[in-house]
Design goal:
This protein has about 325 residues and is an alpha+beta fold. It contains 10 helices and 12 strands. The radius of gyration is 34 Å and the shape is elongated.
């Protein structure tokens, strides 16, 4: 009782200083550095890099003040995982996405010798057997799993330092990312997060590299005053059609823009031809490269204050 009163007095007196960091030594030998959030009836509610948890007073052996640097520098939790092969990668991936977790190992490291590893393998995913076989190594979490006779997946977890404490278990209702995400937090004795598992990141393949020789050919063909010729040469009728659809109306816009400036007929024809050629060259280059990489093209014609116009043709690559 004296120890509990001392713990309560320490946390209560220090509540004015926010945050309060403490090094917690548990009866099984684990040492955790946590931020004290509150004192609950059943124990201390704490924040750790891995998440929030309630540490029972019965587990506390000692508690001393520390600081944010010690909190940030504390070792990550090592986790050994051995679940049915169909779920192994799923569990490892989610553990990798949790802060303060090291490993998610299908194999065994963290101080396990070759002989010890052989003993662990012979345990056949029995979490109590693995904990006993690895008792002489630094503390770590062990997660195992097996299929039940009813076709469900049951997961077990404990540390190799929990003296006399049997593993906790969770029977999953499903095998989605969220099901595993919440189950892992339960097994590691962490509060469930408010949100489900982080979204899986889809790997987007980069666009294929285009040989320099092909790009040079596109540039050379683009100067031929035939809209869409580079795309047509690459057997891309869509690119050819898009080029025609860009050059014709953009030329019309150009003619309309320069026609408002009052040039002579010769000047008007020269500017119109120049606009058509410029639109063709720009469009052929952009659409020709688009045919190589299949990207969408855009065209813009804007009259200027000087009585001419500017034309922009572009595509994202």
């Amino acid at each position: 009782m004296t120890t509990l009163l001392a713990i309560w007095a320490t946390t209560t007196t220090a509540q004015a200083d926010d945050p309060q960091y403490r090094e917690l030594t548990l009866v099984d030998g684990r040492v955790l550095v946590a931020e004290i959030l509150s004192t609950e009836a059943q124990g201390l509610r704490v924040q750790m890099p891995q998440g929030r948890a309630v540490v029972s007073f019965e587990l506390l052996q000692d508690m001393v003040p520390t600081d944010a640097a010690a909190y940030a520098d504390q070792p990550e939790w090592l986790v050994w995982v051995q679940v049915p092969e169909a779920y192994q990668e799923q569990v490892e991936t989610l553990l990798d996405e949790m802060p303060g977790i090291d490993g998610a190992l299908a194999g065994y490291g963290g101080g396990a010798s070759a002989d010890m590893t052989a003993q662990i393998v012979n345990c056949n995913a029995d979490v109590e057997c693995i904990a006993a076989a690895s008792a002489g190594t630094p503390w770590k979490w062990i997660i195992t799993g097996s299929d039940t006779p009813f076709g469900e997946l049951e997961l077990f977890a404990r540390t190799n330092a929990d003296v006399g404490v049997r593993a906790s278990s969770v029977t999953l209702e499903g095998t989605s990312r969220d099901d595993f995400w919440f189950a892992i937090h339960d097994l590691l004795r962490l509060e469930r997060p408010l949100l489900g598992a982080p979204s899986a990141v889809e790997q987007v393949a980069p666009p294929p590299e285009v040989p320099v020789a092909d790009e040079r050919r596109v540039v050379a063909l683009s100067f031929v005053p035939v809209p869409g010729l580079p795309s047509l040469a690459q057997k891309d009728p869509v690119g050819f059609g898009v080029a025609m659809g860009i050059v014709v109306p953009s030329t019309a816009l150009w003619i309309g823009a320069v026609g408002e400036t009052g040039q002579s007929s010769a000047e008007f024809l020269a500017l119109s031809a120049a606009g058509f050629y410029a639109a063709t060259v720009l469009t052929n280059q952009v659409l020709g490269l688009r045919s190589l990489r299949r990207r969408k093209a855009m065209v813009t014609v804007v009259p200027t204050e000087q009585g001419t116009a500017t034309m922009t043709v572009g595509a994202s690559f």
